Amino acid sequence: MKETRTILSTTNLTVGYKDKKGIKPVLSNLNLSLEKGKLTCLLGTNGAGKSTLMRTIGGIQKPLKGEVFMQGKPIRSIDAKSLSKQLSLVLTDRIAPGNLTVYALVSLGRFPYTSWLGTLSQKDKDIIFMAMEATGILEFANKHIGELSDGERQKVMIARTLAQDTEVIFLDEPTAHLDLPNRMEIFHLLRALAVESDKAILLTTHELDMALANADHLWLINQNQTIDSGLPEDLVLNGLLEEAFQRDQLQFDYELGTFKRTSNQSKTKVRLEGDVILKRWTRSALERAGYEVTPDTSDLEIKISGSLKAPLWHLNHNDTTYKTIQELLIQLNNQ
Ligand SMILES: Nc1ncnc2c1ncn2[C@@H]1O[C@H](COP(=O)(O)OP(=O)(O)OP(=O)(O)O)[C@@H](O)[C@H]1O
Protein backbone atom coordinates (compact mmCIF):
# COMPACT_ATOMS: atom_id res chain seq x y z
CA MET A 1 0.00 0.00 0.00
CA LYS A 2 1.24 3.50 -0.86
CA GLU A 3 2.23 5.52 2.20
CA THR A 4 0.03 8.56 2.70
CA ARG A 5 1.96 11.81 2.68
CA THR A 6 -0.82 13.73 4.44
CA ILE A 7 0.07 14.66 8.00
CA LEU A 8 -2.60 17.24 8.76
CA SER A 9 -6.07 17.49 7.31
CA THR A 10 -9.40 19.23 7.82
CA THR A 11 -12.94 18.07 7.19
CA ASN A 12 -15.75 20.57 6.59
CA LEU A 13 -13.83 23.09 8.65
CA THR A 14 -15.30 26.53 9.23
CA VAL A 15 -13.06 29.07 10.95
CA GLY A 16 -14.03 32.44 12.37
CA TYR A 17 -15.28 34.23 15.46
CA LYS A 18 -18.18 34.10 17.86
CA ASP A 19 -19.31 36.90 20.16
CA LYS A 20 -22.47 38.21 21.79
CA LYS A 21 -23.68 39.57 18.45
CA GLY A 22 -23.42 36.15 16.81
CA ILE A 23 -21.21 34.01 14.63
CA LYS A 24 -18.81 35.45 12.06
CA PRO A 25 -17.45 32.74 9.76
CA VAL A 26 -14.29 33.81 7.94
CA LEU A 27 -13.60 30.67 5.83
CA SER A 28 -16.06 27.81 5.38
CA ASN A 29 -16.24 24.16 4.38
CA LEU A 30 -12.53 23.58 4.12
CA ASN A 31 -11.32 20.11 3.20
CA LEU A 32 -7.58 20.58 3.13
CA SER A 33 -4.58 18.36 3.48
CA LEU A 34 -1.01 19.25 4.27
CA GLU A 35 1.69 16.92 3.00
CA LYS A 36 5.07 15.94 4.39
CA GLY A 37 8.12 16.98 2.37
CA LYS A 38 6.37 20.00 0.89
CA LEU A 39 6.42 23.74 1.34
CA THR A 40 2.85 25.01 1.16
CA CYS A 41 2.10 28.74 0.91
CA LEU A 42 -1.20 30.20 2.07
CA LEU A 43 -2.13 33.21 -0.05
CA GLY A 44 -4.99 35.67 0.21
CA THR A 45 -5.80 39.35 0.34
CA ASN A 46 -5.65 41.38 3.59
CA GLY A 47 -8.28 40.20 6.03
CA ALA A 48 -9.06 37.07 3.97
CA GLY A 49 -8.45 34.82 6.97
CA LYS A 50 -4.87 33.53 6.74
CA SER A 51 -3.98 34.07 10.41
CA THR A 52 -7.40 32.86 11.58
CA LEU A 53 -6.96 29.62 9.62
CA MET A 54 -3.40 29.13 10.82
CA ARG A 55 -4.39 29.61 14.46
CA THR A 56 -7.29 27.19 14.05
CA ILE A 57 -5.39 24.38 12.39
CA GLY A 58 -2.57 25.04 14.86
CA GLY A 59 -4.96 24.15 17.67
CA ILE A 60 -4.98 27.55 19.42
CA GLN A 61 -8.37 28.75 18.17
CA LYS A 62 -11.53 26.65 18.21
CA PRO A 63 -13.17 25.88 14.87
CA LEU A 64 -16.73 27.11 14.38
CA LYS A 65 -17.49 23.83 12.64
CA GLY A 66 -15.70 20.72 11.40
CA GLU A 67 -12.51 19.06 12.53
CA VAL A 68 -8.74 19.29 12.21
CA PHE A 69 -6.77 16.03 12.21
CA MET A 70 -3.12 15.54 13.03
CA GLN A 71 -1.81 12.15 11.84
CA GLY A 72 -5.46 11.06 11.69
CA LYS A 73 -6.26 12.11 15.28
CA PRO A 74 -8.57 15.05 16.09
CA ILE A 75 -6.26 17.87 17.16
CA ARG A 76 -8.56 18.83 20.04
CA SER A 77 -7.91 15.40 21.60
CA ILE A 78 -4.11 15.88 21.66
CA ASP A 79 -2.68 17.39 24.85
CA ALA A 80 -0.62 20.58 24.57
CA LYS A 81 2.77 18.98 25.31
CA SER A 82 2.32 16.15 22.77
CA LEU A 83 1.08 18.64 20.18
CA SER A 84 4.12 20.87 20.70
CA LYS A 85 6.34 17.90 19.72
CA GLN A 86 4.40 17.55 16.47
CA LEU A 87 3.56 21.10 15.47
CA SER A 88 5.24 24.47 15.91
CA LEU A 89 3.75 27.81 15.16
CA VAL A 90 5.47 31.16 14.56
CA LEU A 91 3.01 34.03 14.69
CA THR A 92 4.03 37.57 13.79
CA ASP A 93 1.91 39.09 16.55
CA ARG A 94 3.81 37.19 19.24
CA ILE A 95 6.56 39.58 20.25
CA ALA A 96 9.54 37.88 21.82
CA PRO A 97 10.61 39.32 25.19
CA GLY A 98 13.44 41.82 24.62
CA ASN A 99 15.46 40.89 27.71
CA LEU A 100 16.16 37.28 26.59
CA THR A 101 19.35 36.52 24.72
CA VAL A 102 19.12 35.03 21.24
CA TYR A 103 20.51 31.73 22.55
CA ALA A 104 17.99 31.62 25.41
CA LEU A 105 15.10 32.27 23.05
CA VAL A 106 16.15 29.58 20.56
CA SER A 107 16.62 27.18 23.51
CA LEU A 108 12.96 27.67 24.40
CA GLY A 109 12.20 25.64 21.27
CA ARG A 110 13.43 22.59 23.19
CA PHE A 111 10.87 23.01 26.01
CA PRO A 112 8.65 20.08 24.94
CA TYR A 113 11.63 17.73 25.33
CA THR A 114 13.25 18.92 28.57
CA SER A 115 12.31 18.04 32.13
CA TRP A 116 10.45 20.59 34.27
CA LEU A 117 13.86 21.94 35.32
CA GLY A 118 14.52 22.83 31.71
CA THR A 119 18.01 21.31 31.72
CA LEU A 120 19.39 20.97 28.19
CA SER A 121 21.04 17.68 27.16
CA GLN A 122 23.93 17.55 24.68
CA LYS A 123 21.42 16.52 21.99
CA ASP A 124 19.30 19.61 22.79
CA LYS A 125 22.41 21.80 22.55
CA ASP A 126 23.42 20.25 19.21
CA ILE A 127 19.95 20.88 17.77
CA ILE A 128 19.99 24.50 19.03
CA PHE A 129 23.40 24.99 17.40
CA MET A 130 22.16 23.53 14.08
CA ALA A 131 19.03 25.71 14.14
CA MET A 132 21.12 28.85 14.71
CA GLU A 133 23.64 27.86 12.07
CA ALA A 134 20.93 27.14 9.48
CA THR A 135 19.33 30.55 10.00
CA GLY A 136 22.67 32.40 10.09
CA ILE A 137 22.28 33.86 13.60
CA LEU A 138 25.27 32.30 15.40
CA GLU A 139 27.12 35.63 15.36
CA PHE A 140 24.56 37.29 17.62
CA ALA A 141 23.92 34.36 19.97
CA ASN A 142 24.64 36.49 23.06
CA LYS A 143 22.79 39.63 22.00
CA HIS A 144 19.48 40.52 23.61
CA ILE A 145 16.37 40.23 21.46
CA GLY A 146 15.63 43.92 22.08
CA GLU A 147 18.91 44.86 20.35
CA LEU A 148 18.06 43.14 17.06
CA SER A 149 16.58 44.50 13.86
CA ASP A 150 13.13 43.22 12.83
CA GLY A 151 14.71 40.97 10.21
CA GLU A 152 17.22 39.49 12.64
CA ARG A 153 14.44 38.89 15.18
CA GLN A 154 12.44 37.13 12.46
CA LYS A 155 15.35 34.73 11.86
CA VAL A 156 15.62 34.04 15.61
CA MET A 157 11.93 33.12 15.72
CA ILE A 158 12.47 30.73 12.81
CA ALA A 159 15.51 29.23 14.57
CA ARG A 160 13.39 28.61 17.68
CA THR A 161 10.90 26.70 15.53
CA LEU A 162 13.70 24.66 13.97
CA ALA A 163 14.95 23.84 17.46
CA GLN A 164 11.48 22.58 18.34
CA ASP A 165 12.07 20.00 15.60
CA THR A 166 8.44 19.20 14.78
CA GLU A 167 7.13 17.44 11.69
CA VAL A 168 4.69 20.28 10.99
CA ILE A 169 5.74 23.93 10.99
CA PHE A 170 3.46 26.93 10.55
CA LEU A 171 4.87 30.41 9.98
CA ASP A 172 2.78 33.56 9.68
CA GLU A 173 4.58 35.96 7.29
CA PRO A 174 8.12 34.80 8.11
CA THR A 175 9.70 37.16 5.58
CA ALA A 176 7.68 40.27 6.43
CA HIS A 177 10.58 42.47 7.54
CA LEU A 178 13.33 40.99 5.42
CA ASP A 179 15.21 42.49 2.48
CA LEU A 180 15.34 40.67 -0.85
CA PRO A 181 18.45 38.48 -0.28
CA ASN A 182 17.18 37.47 3.16
CA ARG A 183 13.69 36.77 1.81
CA MET A 184 15.18 34.50 -0.84
CA GLU A 185 17.40 32.84 1.76
CA ILE A 186 14.48 32.13 4.12
CA PHE A 187 12.27 30.71 1.35
CA HIS A 188 15.17 28.57 0.16
CA LEU A 189 15.93 27.42 3.72
CA LEU A 190 12.30 26.50 4.45
CA ARG A 191 11.87 24.62 1.19
CA ALA A 192 15.14 22.72 1.74
CA LEU A 193 14.00 21.87 5.25
CA ALA A 194 10.66 20.56 3.96
CA VAL A 195 12.22 18.44 1.24
CA GLU A 196 15.37 17.20 3.01
CA SER A 197 13.88 16.66 6.47
CA ASP A 198 10.47 15.54 5.18
CA LYS A 199 8.60 18.23 7.14
CA ALA A 200 5.26 19.76 6.27
CA ILE A 201 5.75 23.52 6.23
CA LEU A 202 2.92 25.99 5.81
CA LEU A 203 3.56 29.71 5.61
CA THR A 204 1.50 32.78 4.88
CA THR A 205 2.90 35.46 2.65
CA HIS A 206 1.96 38.47 0.56
CA GLU A 207 4.90 37.85 -1.72
CA LEU A 208 3.33 36.32 -4.75
CA ASP A 209 6.54 35.99 -6.76
CA MET A 210 8.34 34.18 -3.92
CA ALA A 211 5.38 31.85 -3.39
CA LEU A 212 5.08 31.07 -7.10
CA ALA A 213 8.79 30.34 -7.36
CA ASN A 214 9.25 28.31 -4.17
CA ALA A 215 6.01 26.68 -3.05
CA ASP A 216 5.35 23.05 -3.88
CA HIS A 217 1.72 23.67 -3.16
CA LEU A 218 -0.57 26.70 -2.73
CA TRP A 219 -3.62 27.20 -0.56
CA LEU A 220 -5.32 30.10 -2.22
CA ILE A 221 -8.14 31.92 -0.43
CA ASN A 222 -10.73 32.74 -3.08
CA GLN A 223 -13.53 35.30 -3.11
CA ASN A 224 -16.10 32.71 -1.95
CA GLN A 225 -14.49 32.45 1.49
CA THR A 226 -13.09 29.05 0.75
CA ILE A 227 -9.74 27.71 -0.49
CA ASP A 228 -8.46 26.40 -3.81
CA SER A 229 -5.42 24.23 -3.46
CA GLY A 230 -2.96 22.96 -6.04
CA LEU A 231 0.37 23.38 -7.75
CA PRO A 232 1.22 27.11 -8.16
CA GLU A 233 1.50 26.83 -11.95
CA ASP A 234 -1.89 25.06 -12.25
CA LEU A 235 -3.58 27.78 -10.19
CA VAL A 236 -2.00 30.42 -12.43
CA LEU A 237 -3.00 28.73 -15.69
CA ASN A 238 -6.59 27.93 -14.67
CA GLY A 239 -7.12 31.59 -13.72
CA LEU A 240 -7.86 30.97 -10.03
CA LEU A 241 -4.89 33.03 -8.85
CA GLU A 242 -6.04 36.05 -10.87
CA GLU A 243 -9.60 35.55 -9.59
CA ALA A 244 -8.49 35.42 -5.95
CA PHE A 245 -6.88 38.88 -6.17
CA GLN A 246 -9.42 40.31 -8.63
CA ARG A 247 -9.87 44.08 -8.35
CA ASP A 248 -10.92 46.80 -10.77
CA GLN A 249 -8.01 47.94 -12.91
CA LEU A 250 -5.85 45.02 -11.83
CA GLN A 251 -4.84 42.29 -14.24
CA PHE A 252 -2.53 39.32 -13.96
CA ASP A 253 0.22 39.37 -16.56
CA TYR A 254 0.58 35.69 -17.50
CA GLU A 255 3.94 36.24 -19.15
CA LEU A 256 5.57 38.20 -16.34
CA GLY A 257 3.80 36.37 -13.49
CA THR A 258 2.80 39.59 -11.68
CA PHE A 259 -0.26 41.78 -11.36
CA LYS A 260 -0.37 45.09 -13.18
CA ARG A 261 -2.74 48.03 -13.26
CA THR A 262 -4.89 48.50 -16.33
CA SER A 263 -6.78 51.54 -17.59
CA ASN A 264 -9.68 52.08 -19.97
CA GLN A 265 -7.95 54.84 -21.90
CA SER A 266 -7.11 53.97 -25.49
CA LYS A 267 -3.41 53.46 -25.97
CA THR A 268 -0.94 53.72 -28.81
CA LYS A 269 -0.06 50.24 -29.97
CA VAL A 270 3.50 49.20 -30.57
CA ARG A 271 5.05 45.99 -31.85
CA LEU A 272 8.40 44.75 -30.55
CA GLU A 273 10.84 42.49 -32.32
CA GLY A 274 14.07 41.04 -30.96
CA ASP A 275 15.66 39.12 -28.11
CA VAL A 276 13.21 37.79 -25.45
CA ILE A 277 14.93 39.45 -22.49
CA LEU A 278 15.39 42.79 -24.22
CA LYS A 279 11.75 42.69 -25.32
CA ARG A 280 10.62 41.91 -21.74
CA TRP A 281 12.30 45.01 -20.24
CA THR A 282 11.43 47.27 -23.15
CA ARG A 283 7.80 46.19 -22.80
CA SER A 284 7.86 46.93 -19.09
CA ALA A 285 9.04 50.52 -19.70
CA LEU A 286 6.64 51.08 -22.61
CA GLU A 287 3.62 49.83 -20.68
CA ARG A 288 4.48 52.08 -17.73
CA ALA A 289 4.68 54.98 -20.18
CA GLY A 290 1.15 54.16 -21.40
CA TYR A 291 1.77 52.15 -24.59
CA GLU A 292 0.17 48.82 -25.42
CA VAL A 293 2.57 46.20 -26.67
CA THR A 294 0.92 44.04 -29.31
CA PRO A 295 2.02 40.96 -31.26
CA ASP A 296 0.10 42.24 -34.31
CA THR A 297 1.50 44.43 -37.05
CA SER A 298 1.35 48.03 -35.99
CA ASP A 299 2.15 51.49 -37.37
CA LEU A 300 4.72 51.82 -34.65
CA GLU A 301 7.40 49.14 -34.63
CA ILE A 302 10.59 48.80 -32.62
CA LYS A 303 13.34 46.38 -33.64
CA ILE A 304 15.82 45.51 -30.90
CA SER A 305 19.26 44.36 -31.98
CA GLY A 306 22.78 44.17 -30.52
CA SER A 307 23.69 42.19 -27.42
CA LEU A 308 22.25 42.15 -23.88
CA LYS A 309 25.07 44.39 -22.65
CA ALA A 310 24.94 46.69 -25.69
CA PRO A 311 21.41 46.71 -27.08
CA LEU A 312 20.11 49.01 -29.81
CA TRP A 313 16.51 50.08 -30.39
CA HIS A 314 15.47 50.93 -33.92
CA LEU A 315 12.28 52.95 -34.43
CA ASN A 316 10.51 52.49 -37.79
CA HIS A 317 8.90 55.97 -37.64
CA ASN A 318 12.07 57.97 -38.05
CA ASP A 319 14.51 55.23 -38.99
CA THR A 320 16.72 56.15 -36.03
CA THR A 321 18.60 53.93 -33.55
CA TYR A 322 18.76 54.51 -29.76
CA LYS A 323 21.20 53.16 -27.17
CA THR A 324 18.92 53.26 -24.11
CA ILE A 325 15.21 52.78 -23.44
CA GLN A 326 15.23 56.25 -21.90
CA GLU A 327 16.38 57.84 -25.19
CA LEU A 328 13.75 55.81 -27.03
CA LEU A 329 10.98 56.98 -24.66
CA ILE A 330 12.04 60.64 -24.97
CA GLN A 331 11.75 60.34 -28.74
CA LEU A 332 8.33 58.61 -28.50
CA ASN A 333 7.04 61.31 -26.11
CA ASN A 334 8.14 64.04 -28.50
CA GLN A 335 6.45 62.53 -31.54
N1 LIG B 1 -10.31 38.54 17.33
C1 LIG B 1 -11.13 38.77 16.30
N2 LIG B 1 -12.46 38.89 16.49
C2 LIG B 1 -13.31 39.10 15.45
N3 LIG B 1 -12.89 39.18 14.16
C3 LIG B 1 -11.58 39.08 13.91
C4 LIG B 1 -10.62 38.85 14.97
N4 LIG B 1 -9.38 38.78 14.40
C5 LIG B 1 -9.56 38.94 13.08
N5 LIG B 1 -10.86 39.12 12.78
C6 LIG B 1 -11.44 39.30 11.44
O1 LIG B 1 -11.31 38.08 10.72
C7 LIG B 1 -11.02 38.32 9.37
C8 LIG B 1 -9.74 37.59 8.96
O2 LIG B 1 -8.64 38.15 9.67
P1 LIG B 1 -7.17 37.54 9.57
O3 LIG B 1 -6.31 38.32 10.50
O4 LIG B 1 -7.25 36.08 9.76
O5 LIG B 1 -6.81 37.88 8.05
P2 LIG B 1 -5.41 37.77 7.29
O6 LIG B 1 -5.69 37.12 5.98
O7 LIG B 1 -4.40 37.14 8.18
O8 LIG B 1 -5.09 39.31 7.06
P3 LIG B 1 -3.71 40.09 6.80
O9 LIG B 1 -3.22 39.68 5.43
O10 LIG B 1 -4.16 41.52 6.79
O11 LIG B 1 -2.77 39.75 7.91
C9 LIG B 1 -10.96 39.85 9.21
O12 LIG B 1 -12.18 40.30 8.72
C10 LIG B 1 -10.70 40.34 10.60
O13 LIG B 1 -11.25 41.61 10.79
TrEMBL record:
| Chain coiled-coil ranges | none
Q: Does the keyword Methyltransferase apply?
A: no
Annotated InterPro entries: AAA+_ATPase, ABC_transporter-like_ATP-bd, P-loop_NTPase, Siderophore_ABC-ATPase
PROSITE patterns according to UniProt: ABC_TRANSPORTER_2
The question of whether Nucleotide-binding is a record keyword is answered with: yes
**One of the Pfam families matching this protein, by short name:** ABC_tran
Q: Name one GO cellular component term.
A: plasma membrane
The biological process GO terms on file are:
iron ion transport
**Superkingdom, according to UniProt?**
Bacteria
Chief location of this protein? membrane
Q: Which CDD domains match?
A: ABC_Iron-Siderophores_B12_Hemin
List each copy of the ABC transporter domain by range: 8-248
**Record keywords, A-Z:** ATP-binding, Cell membrane, Ion transport, Iron, Iron transport, Membrane, Nucleotide-binding, Transport
- Report a single Gene Ontology molecular function: ATP hydrolysis activity
Subcellular location(s) of the protein: Cell membrane
Membrane topology label: Peripheral membrane protein
Q: What is this protein called?
A: ABC transporter domain-containing protein
Organism from which the protein derives: Roseivirga ehrenbergii (strain DSM 102268 / JCM 13514 / KCTC 12282 / NCIMB 14502 / KMM 6017)
